[in-house]
Amino acid sequence: MAVSAKKISIFWFRRDLRLDDNHGLDQALRGGHPVLPLFIFDTRILASLPDRHDRRVQFIQNALERLHKALKEKGSGLAVCRGEPGTVWPRILGRHRVAAVYCNRDYEPYAVGRDEAVRRLLEKRGIPFHTFKDHVIFEGDDILKADGTPYTVFTPYRNAWRKRFVREMPAPFPSGRWGHRFVAADNIRSPMGVKVGHHVGKTGFPGRSLPRKVIENYHLSRDFPGIRSTTRLGVHLRFGTLSIRRAAGWGFRLNRVWLDELIWRDFFAMILRRFPRVADGPFKQDYRQFRWRESPGDFDRWCTGHTGFPMVDAGMRELNATGFMHNRSRMITANFLSKLLLIDWRSGERYFADRLLDFELASNNGNWQWAAGTGCDAAPFFRIFNPEIQQKRFDPKFAYIRRWIPEYGSPRYPDPMVDYRNARARALNHYRIEKSLLHSP
């Protein structure tokens, strides 16, 4: 196949599926060469999914269709490939004279290794690989303590984050304005025959428009899963169909409590980047040998929402049905599994990872470790939620419970699988014994 005569740059879309306010894309379009927009369906990631009809792939496909349509309006289009990046990139380089490759940084361990391999491949051919901060406001080394070490407690990190944000207030990048700088449409082909535009359903995903009232009232209503109390923008931030700078600007102007949720996102991304061991083990090293209960039957009841604790079951059924779970429910269900059932938090983390539309490794991992007491700035081991009290406080009219458990109150609904008082006492005793064993000489 003939190599294109004109030199081009390539912008590699990953977790930033938008044209507007895209840092790496903006830099590519300023680089002096026409820009080929590229997306790679990474078959290694696809193979790890629990279901080949995973709705997150559908979300990505929908986003790619929008991108392709927007690029066609600018006289260009989106090249889409399928395969492992290490195999795809040589084919792309065999087709085009590439001046430079641009992308935005990803901080998950697989992505870090993938990008380093691509960097080495490109450098052997004399092609620079430019990466930029776009997925977070502040990344790994941006917010440090006075001694140059990373924060591992959220509150002082948040305070430092806020001060720097006020000073710098990251402005949006005008990446959507440079339409004439893309590669012309007649030169856009998929090197591996993957087409954008085949029919994919477009319903069932939350919108990315600003839910102003929800944000303004967030500090008052965020803990009540029975009402529209959260923005559900997580999936858009996860795949970059919404700019984090735009979201942070909303939070700064409208509600600092909602902004704090975005700061938690930066915090956990920083922890994952600085302490990659948390991807498959506890942040607190004295929990490495902690003994968890093995009970597949109990785990299955938790997964399917048949524990007999309605706040737990409603949350799990919501997740299984929609790919979403309210944040209060995430805390309740995670606390229940790791403490009242004493089942390894990693089992619950993996279950959430398989089903959450907005799954991000850093946030999912950080929140599960917080619930289990194994993470940085985690809930202490003796903080054990009482699901009944949680219901009385946050779903007093049973709106959430009855929405997801139609048989609640009937003989078809199971009895509680454990006695709360006994399970709490068991958990406290087990944690104390394990901690004493782990600290013994």
Describe the model:
- The protein has 441 residues and is of the alpha/beta class.
- The protein folds into three domains: 133 residues, HUPs (Rossmann fold), CATH 3.40.50.620; 101 residues, Alpha Horseshoe (Serine Threonine Protein Phosphatase 5, Tetratricopeptide repeat); 155 residues, Orthogonal Bundle (DNA Cyclobutane Dipyrimidine Photolyase, subunit A, domain 3).
- Strand 4, helix 5 and strand 5 form a beta-alpha-beta unit.
- Helix 13 packs across helix 14.
List the helices and strands and how they pair.
Blueprint (H helix, E strand, L loop, with lengths): L6 E7 L9 H7 L5 E8 H6 L6 H19 L5 E5 L1 H11 L1 E8 L4 H16 L4 E4 L21 H15 L43 H5 L1 H4 L12 H6 L4 H11 L1 H19 L21 H9 L5 H13 L4 H14 L4 H11 L5 H12 L14 H8 L4 H6 L15 H20 L2
Parallel strand pairs: 1-2, 1-4, 2-3, 4-5
Helix pairs in contact: 4-5, 6-11, 10-11, 11-16, 13-14, 14-16, 15-16
Helix content range of the residues, please?
A: 40-55%
The structural class is alpha/beta
Strand content: 5-15%
Under CATH, the homologous superfamily of the largest domain reads DNA Cyclobutane Dipyrimidine Photolyase, subunit A, domain 3
How many strands appear in the DSSP assignment? 5
Averaged pLDDT, please? Answer: 92
Q: H/E series, N to C? A: EHEHHEHEHEHHHHHHHHHHHHHH
The main pleated sheet reads as: 5 strands, parallel
Low-confidence stretches: 197-203
Q: What CATH architecture of the largest domain do you see?
A: Orthogonal Bundle
Q: How many angstroms does the end-to-end distance come to? A: 67 Å
- Structural domains: how many: 3
Query: Total number of helical segments?
Result: 19
